[in-house]
Amino acid sequence: MADRPLLLSVSAAAARLGVHVGTVRRWTDDGQLPEVRTPGGHRRIPAEAVERLRRERATTAEEPTALAASEPSDPASEAWAEHAVVHARYEVRSNGDAPWNQAFDATERAHRRETGRQLVGLLLRHVADQGDSDARKAEVRRLAWGYALDMKDRGLPLTEALRATLFFRDILTESTAYYPRFDEKPAADQIALMRRVNEFMNDVQLTIASAYESDAQLEE
């Protein structure tokens, strides 16, 4: 008789993946993770599938997040992005008592940092208008939607989720002042850069608001 596959509870799978239990439920709902149901209706996830997803996420985290390898890189833009990431890390530590920060444990905050790096990479592509615009926007909305639902899972109101995005918006705005060669650009180019940053953050914030307004209910 073949060995039965090892099945994990939602909480055990979440612990292995370093995410919230609500995130695992959504991943089973959208097909990223397979599931089986117990006679009592509880979800169980094959351990092999969890480990495969964990490896895939680890591989993705190791890949460059600022610009795709196939796209030409701009040292000035990459320096700006790195400044924004370092600035954000410092400010997050300085705001450790903020509700939107305390809502996540250490493992989950590490995952949030990776999400932030991915968003900065997408912002660079948006500013430079690199890659497929529709695909870029879809990825931004996927990340922002997941973040919003993670906040919602923890019982945080929309105001706190938006407060977090305003916090990062301020960091991006301040980091733009340190953009290498910024003073060399004509005023029109400086305005265009700020407009692109604002367009990006508008999309993030509107997506978060839409996620909070969604009628989708999570399994208790």
Commentary on this structure:
By secondary structure, the chain is mostly helical. The protein has 2 domains: 7-59, Multidrug-efflux Transporter Regulator, Chain: A, Domain 2 (Orthogonal Bundle), CATH 1.10.1660; 64-213, Orthogonal Bundle (Globin-like), CATH 1.10.490.10. It contains 9 helices and 3 strands, in the order βααββααααααα. The chain has helices spanning 10-17, 21-29, 47-62, 75-94, 99-102, 106-128, 133-153, 158-176, 187-213, and strands at 7-8, 36-37, 43-46. The chain has a 3-stranded antiparallel sheet with strand order 1-3-2. It is elongated, with a radius of gyration of 19 Å. The model is unreliable at 61-72 and 216-220 (pLDDT under 50).
Features:
220 residues; mainly alpha; Multidrug-efflux Transporter Regulator, Chain: A, Domain 2; Globin-like; 2 domains; three-stranded antiparallel beta sheet; 9 helices; 3 strands; elongated; disordered C terminus
Q: Count of helices?
A: 9
Helix content: 55-70%
Note the beta-strand portion. under 5%
CATH class of the largest domain, anyone?
Mainly Alpha
Q: Work out the number of β strands.
A: 3
Largest sheet: 3 strands, antiparallel
Molecular shape:
elongated
CATH architecture of the largest domain: Orthogonal Bundle
Q: Order of strands across the biggest sheet?
A: 1-3-2
Task: Kindly identify the CATH topology of the largest domain.
Answer: Globin-like
